Amino acid sequence: MDSISSNPVARRAFLAGTAAVGIMALPGCQSMGGFSMVEAIRRLLDISAKNAFAKLTAPGGFWDSEVARFDLPDMFGTSGPLKTLLLSSAFRQGLQKQLNVVAEKGAERAAPVVYEAVSKISIPDAISIVRGGSSAATAYLRGQTGQGLVGAMVPGLSDALRVSSDPVLGKAIKALSGVDLGQMAQSLATKADHSIWNQIGLEEGAIRANPEATRDPLLIGVFKVL
């Protein structure tokens, strides 16, 4: 033990290994040293989602995020007239940016769906999520939620597309003759769905890497030595 105690790196490795062994030995693997891992996962997801939506619903939220910014949905590159407009790099970038702006309205509709899913989530195997990758809890929640966010976002995105006064977006919508706003919103919601989960996963990873920043004793107790 003397060599371990005098070597910080070895000590951290020893503590992590001891914690892992302790977790695996617990009946049902649902608690650790008085901590509820199921509750820890719920708190992890709740804070991750709130951090993600705080960023994504702010002005420029999607566009300014390296993991949430998305390219043009496939639908916006299939129309003949729109294809011609997209030959201009300035028009393409302007349209991409405006669609990312519109997605902020979708995120506002998606947030309550995620919060409710977190509060009701069933976690039969908490240990695999606790010891999983940096976005293991997010991936699990996404699997439980399915296409729930897409359905929730479509009405808000349809409204946002309809009332937008952006000239670039207006030209693009006009060029998509024969395609209604509902179809456009569905295509956009699919992109936004991926972006939202990417952002939540990023926030989860940040918490796992530095649980102390949350000031939540439960998260610190569960994730600090893992």
Helix content: 55-70%
Question: What is the number of beta strands?
Answer: 2
Span from first to last CA? 20 Å
Described by the principal axes of the CA atoms, the overall outline is elongated
Instruction: Give the neighbour order of strands across the main sheet.
Output: 1-2
What's the Cα radius of gyration?
Answer: 22 Å
Order of helices and strands: HHEEHHHHHHHHH
Low-confidence stretches: 1-29
Q: Total domains, how many? A: 1
Beta content comes to: under 5%
Largest sheet entry: 2 strands, antiparallel
Structural category: mainly alpha
DSSP helix count? 11
Topology:
Layout: H1 2-5, H2 8-25, E1 31-32, E2 35-36, H3 37-56, H4 80-85, H5 89-120, H6 126-130, H7 136-145, H8 148-163, H9 167-175, H10 181-209, H11 217-223
Antiparallel strand pairs: 1-2
Helix pairs in contact: 3-5, 3-10, 5-8, 5-10, 7-10, 8-10
What can you tell me about this protein's structure?
This protein is mostly helical. It has one domain. The protein contains eleven helices and two strands, in the order ααββααααααααα. It has a two-stranded antiparallel ribbon. A hairpin with a 2-residue loop joins strand 1 and strand 2. The longest helix is centred in the middle third of the chain and has 32 residues.
